[in-house]
Records
---
Amino acid sequence: MSKLWVIVLGTAVAAVVAAGLYLNLTSTDAGISQAMASDPDALVVEVAADEHIIGDPNAPVTIVEYASLTCPHCAAFHTEILPEVKKQLLDTGKARLVYRDFPLDQLALRASALVRCALPLQRPAMLSLLFQTQATWARSQDPMGALTQIGRGVGMSEAAANACLQDQTVLDKVIAQRLEGEQKYKVASTPSFIIGGKLYGGGLSVEQMVELVTKGDL
């Protein structure tokens, strides 16, 4: 077991996971009026060039999403809300969305690792497929086998997918991203969004997200 995973298990949240319980920290739709800024001062979020970015990398507004691949609310955002957000904000160059991992359980951790092991051009399709079929693979009697099949569906070999799901180096990187979100930005639920230096916990509608990007005090 890696040292980093030991650190995670030391937290109250990970302790629940270690006990074998499904961890569900998803929140209901919060709405703009209930959105919470984690600090009176704007959060400064640095984005690396190799992160999962949707939209123009040079867009003036950055939307950072923290999500878990086993979170139903996250799946709802990606399948129902994101397509219109992409049309109105991302494709028009008004904003970019940076996807970050915040796994709520071991299965989400492995799924996140699988996305990271895919080739850059394969990752958007894999992420979309995982959210679209979440109810199937996440509830499968053999979820790891289901993840392997998803990997094969976007061009990975079975051997590569299986190796990825057990690659501790990749798993540690996913865990590190969750830890950063939790400790640095005070992320406590999924999905959570950082827009204009403020943290919003809970689902946001298309209208709310457009308002925050185009009319908010950014």
---
Amino acid sequence: MPSAYQIVVNTPLWVWPLMLFVLWLGWRGLQPRVIPPARLAILPLVGVATSLAGIAQSLQPGLALAGWAAALLAALPLGWAIGSRRAVRLRPEDGRLEVAGGWFVLGFAVSIFVVRYTLGVLSGVMPHLRAEPFWIVLSGGVGGAVTGIGLGWLANLLLRAWRPAVLRS
């Protein structure tokens, strides 16, 4: 098993600017801001894309997809609950959202990065895991959990923002 130093040294260089970008995005999420609804969806959609990419790279995509779907369904309520803790309001004059700052975006962005990095390292260090059914389901499930939390959070915020706007119409 390689040391932590060897893992860091052998990590592709493009990973480190990506990590800094993820931290910057998360840091920006700590402050209240006014954003278009599509920008609110960026991180959850990154979670979807990275987890689906992991499924596509799996040796048994059907098995990975099953783990992903089960974990996604289990994690949606958690994401919904986390989303209910964030204040959000639709601005009728321009359709943008006023979103309160919070730690979720930072934690979620870092979790996507850490999960993908860890799965990549483990697959590189122990390539035989890629063929193990338990590992395939677990890898898909971790991606599904991250995706479910992100989509639940996003759905809660968007529905709460638009529901009062629809009732006013």
